[in-house]
Amino acid sequence: MERLNTKLYLQNCYIMKENERLRKAALLLNQENQALLSELKHRLAKSAAAGNNNNNAAAAAAAANRASPKPSMDAAPPAQAGGKGKPAPKPK
């Protein structure tokens, strides 16, 4: 009976030691996962901000084009070299 108790005690010690080793490994993996998740969130936020800046610039340009006033009848006609529909004369 004494021998059986000793054997079970040694097995229990081995299991506790292995459990502690696995707990430490799990802790390290969790820390690594948290660091990677943080980096991923940072990169996603950065790319989303860059995408929003591009979208905002395009939207602002489109809004400016829509909001720009059309020339009125009082406005001066655009300058055309050489007359209406004719190409500009070539300098000599």
UniProtKB/TrEMBL annotation:
<feature type="compositionally biased region" description="Low complexity">
    <location>
        <begin position="56"/>
        <end position="67"/>
    </location>
</feature>
<dbReference type="InterPro" id="IPR039312">
    <property type="entry name" value="ZPR"/>
</dbReference>
<feature type="region of interest" description="Disordered">
    <location>
        <begin position="56"/>
        <end position="92"/>
    </location>
</feature>
<protein>
    <recommendedName>
        <fullName>Protein LITTLE ZIPPER 3</fullName>
    </recommendedName>
</protein>
